[in-house]
Amino acid sequence: IWHLSVKWQFQYNDTLAARVDGYRTLSAHIQRFRDITPESGAYFLTRIAAQNEGDVYEPDHEVAYWGSENYEKLLAVKRR
């Protein structure tokens, strides 16, 4: 089991470009862990809301969040 906590925050007056660059940089760092722990997923824990937020740059979100065996089953239930 892996638990990785990474902190990154932007300032209220940061530009959109700076925020996007920050997300991309963080996602690139997390990629190292994706590479050594397949299907482990990625999430961000927001400091204020204390909730998980999916990585908008997650390359394979279906597998990362639900697992390769579960995604099709969950999708079938959703389509009912």
UniProtKB/TrEMBL annotation:
Top-level taxon of origin: Eukaryota
Record domain Berberine/berberine-like: where: 52-80
Signal peptide extent: none
Pfam family, any one: BBE
Organism: Ganoderma boninense
Protein name: N/A
Coiled coil feature spans: none
Gene name of this polypeptide: Q2VLJ1
GO MF terms held by the record: flavin adenine dinucleotide binding; oxidoreductase activity
Organism lineage string: Eukaryota, Fungi, Dikarya, Basidiomycota, Agaricomycotina
